[in-house]
Records
---
Amino acid sequence: MESNKKYWKGLEEYKNTPDFVENNKNEFAEPLPIEDVLNEAGLSTVTPRRDFLKALGFGLGAVTLAACQTAPVHKSIPYLIKPEEVVPGIPNYYVSSFNGQSVLVKTREGRPIKIEPNPNAGTFFRGTDAQAQASVLDLYDVSKLKAPVIKDAEANWAKVDEFVTGELNKAQASGKKIRIVSSSVSSPSSKAVIADFTVAYPNTKHVQYDAISYTGIIKANENSFGKPVVPKYNFDKADLIVSFGADFLGTWISGEEFTAQYVSNRDAKSLKAGKMSRHFQFEAGMSLTGTNADTRVPIRLSEEGPALITLYNAITGANLAGGTLGNNVT
């Protein structure tokens, strides 16, 4: 049943006063005067700021809407049986290691997303370098193989195990040598696995090779001090630092650990205490360490040896030969 009742919002509307009629015209936004603006008369006139903003907003909105494409649909499938330790939206953490660095890995629903230094590593706390931070990206590399491959043909792991075992048995039976090539291995678990493999195949030899090797440092310490080790430096306790081509704030040995030590002895507290380390850097190419040095001396690679001999002679009073330097080094 249709109602004949009529309602008013106020006395102004009921009496239809001139003020109400004028204000009612601006109750809703007026249509954009596109045709009036684009005609010859409109282009020759001054455009009000409000009209300009209206046209600009409409244009940006229209272009954005026209550029939109159908977004891919990603379906989120809930757990049928949820693991007890996994809560969607709340990250989990676990401890691991990378190139001798103790790291803390942040995961979400089983997917590693961030690597940080392990704060509970104690004496093994070294921080994380750029390689450790970027290593998580390898897990999401779309160009990686999705499955094992044998002779350019995709296979499964059972076939790979069968093929490798057969080839190893043939090499062992024929007296051929077997080599395991890897980077330096410090993990006791990995060493135990390699040892068990060597027992099963006595012709095996483990060859360790690193793209960035510290063999020279190890040999030098063995010749000088009788111990084949990589030394551990304490830059926070040094009053004078002299470096020859060692980018210890960047990529040399443990840059993150050395940086924390280096800064602790060169901050405002050290300056206030009147004791701040002095740093001299001799290097052929610009490095992060060189840019932070108090004095940076550019030298050729061929001059590093003579510069070291000259410094040794100055400290010890010896007179070793070979300490002649160029004119650019004093």
Note: The chain has a mean pLDDT of 84.
---
Amino acid sequence: MLAGRYRRLGRIGQGGMGVVWRAYDTDLEREVAIKELRVPEQVTEQERRVWYARMQREARAAARLRHPGIVTVYDRVMGEDGRPWIVMELIHGQSLEHLLTEQEALPEQQIAAIGLAMLEALSAAHSHRIVHRDVKPANVLLEGDRIVLTDFGIAAVEGDATLTRPGTVLGTPAYMSPEQIAGQTVTPASDLWSLAATLYAAVEGRPPFTALTHGALFIAIATQDPAPPKCGGPLAQVLNGLLRKDPANRLSVTQIRDLLTTVTGPGTKPDTQSCRSVDQQSATRTDTLSYTDDLTLPDDKGRSQPARAAEELPVEQEAVAIYRRLAEADPDRY
């Protein structure tokens, strides 16, 4: 029994640092979801305090937001061992990630509807000066017609003291923006990139960038363009307009809303003619690197040399270092 009132009934899901349980609130006689923080035993006491503080920040950030597209936080309680737990509404549905494992790709109208709901939820968070920083299919829950954004565990809250060391990379690599992987300041535009990456996965059945290692993935995000999406029209305009390297060049919320509404609006039918097979997508930009091209980086004397192996540096340090070297060598491009 947690905090003398929450009885765990069963595990809903598990991530890298936490577990979400279905539980019963014996005081209010209702089912809830509770999030348990699990910190590896080998971390230092200082690191442990940072993770506890981040969990508390998640509760505060989500509790500020009252929006049907954002999971409602009811309470934050402390366990007997001093760990914080978050009590929130129980969503009776599945994640977009789980749905994509079953269907691989979704119809355009459904994708646009999901995109609109996520856009409104993110706009609500941004209006409270909260940047989510981890928008991805696993954090989008589907409950009937309701679409809910969850997990503000690494959200950046304006006015709160930072919990992240300079240069540290937080987020899920495949859905992170170029500025995120470079360890730069995140903004609402960073969440919009991740929104587009999530919708791209719903169109293609995979994220816009894939690679065998995190380092290679970060380089791809920083230096390459994604393959053109299978479906054209307004939905493709949203994807292409948000997956731009420079945050200042990404579409505005109003532009995104207008384009997605064109797809979901009354009388709109799925544009089956705009959906192309993989074989028909061979026409890609020739001025960007393919996923399998070997990268060469300039050394201190300007000579080309192969990129360092991923094992030589921690993932985040390697990717940030490579990105910065690329930017120094060709600032106009990066």
Note: The domain at 6-88 is CATH 3.30.200.20 (Phosphorylase Kinase; domain 1).
---
Amino acid sequence: MTLLPFRCHPLLKSRVWGGEQLLEWNKSLPGGNTNRWGESWELADLPEDIPDGRSIIRDGPLAGQNFHDAMVQHTPVLMGDLPRSPHGGFPLLVKLLDAQRNLSVQVHPTAEYAAAHPGAYKKDEAWLILDAKRDSMLYTGLAEGVTPAELHAAAQRGQDLEPLMPPVPAIPGECHVLPSGTCHALGAGILVAEFQTPSDTTYRIWDWGREGREMHLDQALACMSPGRAAPPCTTPAHADGLEINIVANTPAFVLRTLRTPDQRLMQSPPSDRPEIWMILEGEMQCETMHWTKGDTVFFPAQRDVAIEVAAGSHWVQCHLPIGQERLA
């Protein structure tokens, strides 16, 4: 048995730092400009105790089904030999984030912390920068010589934490890999594709002077690592006229960006693992399905399809490697 690739309905999340730029990525944002839409969860299968955390399939014979239930019922076809997450779900969460304002300075649980605290889930993530306003910045760790305890103490005093976290220019096309425990923040004016292990556990440390949201200083200190995340690393490659860049290589996922100068037919044969594609530019056709900018497509392990790719198309291909960990 084989299945065609399919999309899921986006799960839209209103955030204090969000805006309306997801409209440019073909997301239907309810409420006009009365809401700040910060996140579009493109493919999600979070634990049951996280509200509104499981995608509904949009296309094909499984349309209307909960992605988690479909995965359980059709494991060999959809998953191949890919291990599930520790909570029995799909081991990846894919999002689009529209940061019109700074996200909080925050930390996500490490595996050790999650193992000792039920309800906390490890989160390793990668931000692929899709768009960035001039002079926009992000923050990927502590300044040299600054310890987690010093940052914690500064936050308790209500101090501006920006001097303790050196800014990094946001450059479209670069990808920042943020292991769990990294103190980080996405700055204003940046839109990213986020690929992460399945978690929605965030410990906020500082909210740039905004009031009304809970901070989690002690939990953050217990998880926080010193230092900074590694700078972006891109490995270029070319194959059959495709421009290919490996932008993230982690135990949980590998991200490649691909661009084609010409129209082509691409084959996607059966595999032992599923794949995920996100369309950044251009358009694609797969049988009766038409994919455009902003579409995220799940390719089942047992697939055998040909995709018509328009000239100039640009997309992300997420591969789930053989060494994929069972991440806590």
Note: The chain is about 10% helix and 35% strand.
---
Amino acid sequence: MLHPFQRPALTFTSRRMASFAALASVLALSACKDPRETAQLPAYVEADMTQVASPVAGILFKLGVQEGQSVKAGDALYVLESNREQAQLAEAQARKQQAEAQTQNLSKGAREAELDTYRARLRAAKAQREQARTQLKKTEALLKRGFISEAQVETDRTALQVAEATVEEARAALKAAKAGARSDERAAAAAQEDAAKAGIDQVQWLLQQKQVSAPVTGVIQEIFVRKGEFAQAGAAVMNILHKDSMRVRFFVPNDLRPRFMPGSKFEVQISGCDKPLNARITRVSARPEYTNPLMFGPELRDRLSFLTEGHLETGSCSVPPGTPVGVIVPDAKG
């Protein structure tokens, strides 16, 4: 017993007989009726649609387009409220200026007034050294005469050594003041400056994401968020119908496939249009279908078919995506 949803398989001969019978019925009807009414394949209109969203959330502050308006890629669409980001940008710029000033200050070294202080300390240390040296000469002379002890001479020698060390210390301090901060301090200041610049770049990126432009050229199809409403991060605010993206999708029976080869032209019958619209085949699927679950009739049921797409030239007749249409079967060539 067959499954309720399973149909009996047709043999090759019976399938061909069914195909010939269906085609014969189409041709017989076309002999007595307008071929535009009979020799048609069910189809529907499809188009490319882009949903426009921002990766950051915010209240929609300004809406610059309306539904049905044509836009070009790069045109401004809407702006999200950015008071917090503006404040963050001002703070980041202040941190950058502070870091730059610190880096510049460390690279310069001490100011001239500070250097004068270090020079004065060096002169004082040299004067003390000369005084200690003179005092040592006096005590050494007195020691030779026997007026003082050896201990007194050793004390003056130690004082001279201390004075010389003080001179070296003052000279090193003056040199360090002229050279500026240490290399590790300058490196730390430079790192703070780089971090401040990165903070500015990050806030500027956030501000750019709140000014949304059209990613493609087309027509504003539908707007989901209005001025004053909150737009979620990543949620679509509107969608854009791509320009020149209208196409027809339909299934072509195997015996009619030679009439719908890529590049060939055909006509599409649309309700409400005065005359059929022109179209051109852009793709024919290489994988066959045995049933068309949404678009099949008794005469097409068991016939091998191929999913086919064709670029639709809308012209003056507007056709929204999803519209069911009829593809007129062209006459056989030769």
Note: The domain at 49-81+210-238 is CATH 2.40.50.100 (OB fold (Dihydrolipoamide Acetyltransferase, E2P)).
